[in-house]
Amino acid sequence: xxxxxxxxxxAVLGPTNTGKTHLAIERMAAHSSGIIGxxxxxxxxxxxxxxxAIKGPKEVALVTGEERIVxxxxxxxxxxxxxxxxxxxxxxxxxxxGQLGADPERGHVFTDRILRARGRDETMILGSDSLRPxxxxxxxxxxxxxxxxxxxxxxxxxxxxxxxxxxxAIVAFSAEEVYAVAEALRRLRGGAAVVMGALSPRTxxxxxxxxxxxxxxxxxxxxxxxxxxNLDVHHVAFASLNKFDGRRQRRLxxxxxxxxxxxxxxxxRDGTFGALVEExxxxxxxxxxxxxxxxxxxxxxxxxxxxxxxxxxxxDALIASLERKPDHMMLRAAxxxxxxxxxxxxxxxxxxxxxxxxxxxxxxxxxxxxxxxFRKLGLDPHTRFVSRVFRHLSEARGHIPHTWFADxxxxxxxxxxxxxxxxxxxxxxxxxxxIAHRADWLDDPAHWADRTRALExxxxxxxxxxxxxxxxxxRTTVLLRQIGADAxxxxxxxGAEGEVTVEDHPLGQLRGFHFEVSPDxxxxxxxxxxxxxxxxxxxxxxxxxxxxxxxxxxxxxxxGAEVHWQGSRVAHLDATxxxxxxxxxxxxxLDVLNPRERNAALARIAAWLDARIVADLPDLATLDALxxxxxxxxxxxxxxxxxxxxxxxxxxxxxxxxxxxLDPDDRKRLRKAGIVIGTLDLFMPxxxxxxxxxxxxxxxxxxxxATEGASVLHRTAPGASLxxxxxxxxxxxxxxxxxxxxxRAAHDARKxxxxxxxxxxxxxxxxxxxxxxxxxxxQLGFQGLRGREGQxxxxxxxxxxxxxxxxxxPRDTSMGHAFAKLVALTDD
Length: 828
Fold this sequence. Notes:
The protein is α/β, with parallel strands linked by helices. Helices cover 40% and strands 16% of the residues.
């Protein structure tokens, strides 16, 4: 991954809401493999979840200090910048928020990635426009692209908490200030969600879900929201313009203000920003407002740097290399970070020097010093903790005792206490999660990784509950005060067309299980009536759940990757390695059902999908059964599995090693199942018939294809490709079963390697041009001989080009990727 001089480097610069991160995700998804480094664990997790939905969980990895999800065949990695696996060669590499190279604490990490992390085929550096001058000097080969903001960001003036518009985010710069603002909003406006960088992804997602769902109208956050987290925020209000940066209290820079304010607005919707006070240090100056609105940020004059590949021959050499001064005018030596301070303190201990006498021991010591101070205890307590960790790593088998690990986990396994207490336990648990993901530090790291993950989830759920209880007022008696009666007694009426009314107020429409609020139900009194109406929908939703569980086949339909019931969406089909068995995910509108009702709905949809596959694509259903038939043998099952993934047809070379390994019984079993092992392709002829081909295209989302099973298509016609069952040959594409018929006729006509002239009638009847036939014969292993002018073309058998190197079948290959690899096997 490092130092690929021929790999193009693109720097995509611009303000927030320009789609930079989305662009990087799209670019990485288009490559065969990739890594993106993010500034926050929360952001890495957010993008990981998005990419898993696209590529599937077996293809995508998440690597952070405290979390490591790396399936054996993972090809796309989402990481924090510190955790990017620089020793892995991948096609694509990106670094997000590259301007953080100017951060005194973490800047050297981002600078190192800017200088050294490269993809084999493409590299992207994302960041603020302030990065432009240093990039021109440090990475002169980079092409710099500027992206404009999608929407307008404007100053809305100072507003008190009590007058903030809904969908506002209030930004504070300490946990104490965040809690104080959230408490005030609870009293004034009914509550707020809380987002801080120290929260676990699970807690943060639960809090954001409340805000996104409209359960609360306000969100209080630290500057963590400035690092690209996607939130539906209309207005950003600054509770303060000063922060403690780890060394001193200082005013935010214009770049920091712009980064945070830019969270307002999303896509094409404009956003606003402001402060809570009109005057004093907490108010914006006219110059700052003009710079933020105009997206003008001061250019960076330097980035912080520290040796990314330090010398490990000895402790002293390690320290010297980490303190080495940069030799470039745009780089500054990074301030002494916590890991280096801990290293120096441990280097002064005689017992440490006695145990560190080899490069391997130095590397182990340096890894231990890299343990982050998640608990923010300060240098002395953190050094003592690292010292104890390294003492265990440098003695006996070099593993941390499971008794110590287990005792510490047990000590943290409590959910009592207030918000601060639970948050402190989560911070401590992050240290143990970090240790658990060091594969060589524990005797059974996988076990302890699961334990720490379960602990963090438990504490995260408790923290979410505690935050909600403390900062959100449910106001369950509002309806009673407004209408003077029990809300459950209100007459909720659902009309024949799904219209919902309460006390003659039209509140909206119930479509399937989704309730759409009427535009005129936005006044305060109607919102209160709406809450009562939603309670009244429960019986109707239960009735509809029973109807869905017993739905006839004609009431269900598939629209792309969605399942509809009576015309309304009820489930989404998530792609898996087996296109016949997508993962069924019920729509969130069905979350109101109880587990029994949800399971009944899932079972009905699954049964309907299976029946539809058997009815529309019986050949594929047979193939799928063969892939799971224990009596078929491993070779047959493996080949059948590959064909299922490919939708029942694939070039023979894609499974060359498997085909060559088949014995006569295997081939007989495959023929009996309807599989043709052709010279060029493996296929099931039934899938090429018009009805089956149309059903197969819909199943695999292939788009338009050839109509009525045409024998030959023009190269530019819809469906003229291998994944549709047509082999491109020059200006034509020939259906693969007909190409196989020509192959058999040619082999029947030849006698050994004696030149022969095939009967042209077959190719002519199919509509093949002489050029197409010549290309096909060449792919089939025949070489044309020059003859006299006017004489028919003669051919001689030369044999197919052998496989360069047999490969084992891939563990999990998506349809799109399989055919992308096969482009090279087709002739222009």
